[in-house]
Amino acid sequence: MATTPTREVARRVFAGEFNDATYTFKESDDERAPVYLLLPTGERANRVFLVGTLMETEDVGDDSEYWQGQVIDPNGDRYYMYAGQYQPDAASMLRELEPPAYISVVGKPRTYETDDGEVNVSVRPESITEVDAATRDRWVVETAERTLDRIARYTDETDADGEAAVDEYVAMAAEEYDLPIEDYRRQVVEALESLEDEEAVAAEPDA
Q1: Taking Cα atoms as reference points, which of 50, 21, 41 lies closest to residue 120?
Q2: Do residues 81 and 104 make contact, with C-beta atoms less than 8 angstroms apart?
Q3: Which pLDDT does position 206 carry in this prediction?
Q4: Considering only CA atoms, which of 44, 3, 11 is closest in space to residue 27?
Q5: What is the pLDDT of residue 162?
Q6: Which residues pair with 106 in a beta bridge?
Q7: What share of the chain is helix, strand, coil (3-state, %, to 5)?
Q8: Which domains occur in the chain, in start order?
């Protein structure tokens, strides 16, 4: 009996960690098997969910529309996303939105190796929605919590030498990435502090 494929959970991840996640893999030889991005904190991601400020849009296509959008998270790090004829709804949103604007994006991570061997990470959006500041703030808090959960699992699963124990994705991340896990804890702290700073400014009486 055939089973209906289920959609993968969309992972919440700050741009700093997302851009560091340059390793992809499949878990079967089936050509239709999902491609996963391996997050440095030891989680796989076939889809991502992000909310931030759309800062720039540009049609970078040659023969047909191919829109690039740049979204910044509260730390000032950028996600890059690209939408063309196969993502008509997302491309239409990038064409019509006027930056700066808060948006939420659900999409699939993509990696691209440049001529000099660097790997760039981007998002192929499935949906783009304009949102308000409160939605962005909730996403920041939830993403901070999810990131801290991943960091806690990673540190529990590895010893002082970074050798991974049981969790297969933590083991894979420890092997593939030589990155200080504390960088991502710092990104969480900075993101939450940025919210506090914004709230403090908003609470100040008008001069």
Answers
A1: 21
A2: no
A3: 60
A4: 44
A5: 52
A6: 49, 127
A7: 35, 30, 35
A8: 10-195 (2.40.50.140)
Q: Which residues have CB under 8 Å from 182's CB, separation 6+? A: none
205: its two tokens: 């009486």
pLDDT value of position 2: 47
Amino acid at residue number 199: E
Q: Taking the C-alpha atoms of 114, 124, 190 and 113 in order, what is their torsion angle to the nearest 10 degrees? A: -10
In this structure, the strands spanning 43-45 and 78-83 are: unpaired
* DSSP-derived secondary structure letter, 27: S
Contact 44, 86 (CB under 8 A): no
Joined together, the tokens standing for residue 36 give: 């996963």
| Interval 111-158: pLDDT, tens | 999 988 899 999 999 999 999 999 999 999 999 999 999 999 999 888
Sign of CA dihedral 16, 99, 48, 134: positive
| pTM, full prediction | 0.90
Residues of the chain with pLDDT below 50 are 1-4, 164
Would you state the pLDDT for residue 54? 98
